[in-house]
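BUG: 3D viewer hangs when loading the predicted structure for this chain

Environment: internal workstation, default settings.
Expected: structure renders.
Actual: progress bar stalls at 90%.

Input used:
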Amino acid sequence: MPGLLAYAIWFLGALLEAIVVVCAIKKKALRPYLFLNMYMAAELFASFFRYNILQHYGLSSPQYMYFYYYSDALLTIFLYLALTSLFVRVFSELHAEQYVRFGAVILLCATAAFSYAVVYQSQARFLTHFVVELSQNLYFVGLVLTYVLWAAVLKLRETRTRLIQLVLSLGVYFSLFAANYALGNLYPEAGSVLQYLPPIYGCFLPAAWAYAFWRIPEDSRLTPARLAVIR
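Structure tokens produced before the viewer hung:
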């Protein structure tokens, strides 16, 4: 079973996820950032069910393992949709929302097809291997897309402060998880250490989004000079 510190980090992450949704409701940012809040709500529910399964069956049980990996794949798809919604907001002034949504669906299908091809030869636990591979690939796709989105923010001279905060925090989050997956593949012997890092990473994103919703008004704008400094 996880130790006291692991439980503390887990509960802190769940608390921060709940705070994001509450801040969004208080600041009337629930509907404008619907997919971001849906992702946070899904994370909160997943944490609740993971905890209950952990208490009933244990950390090494097949029930917990299957639920963890399958829920992680669904949460990664939710996060991908949240990232797509930020693309839509950035490109809304160009009236390119339909193209962004169509491209996002095509890329998601292509990532799923690639993941299927990677694990096609696997005979045992094919579905489990597929969802794990899909989650990893979506994190790397999300990382690349976030930096593409940031390049678009700079190119289009986007100055909405809250939107910039959300994009930057998502870029850091994807980078941390992509690095964790890469290190795990390169150094399998370090898996016992790396497995404790994702819960810590998981606290960063809701903390950054809660700050963005609570402290940064929707109509707040960065001056071009400050945007150049961030660049």
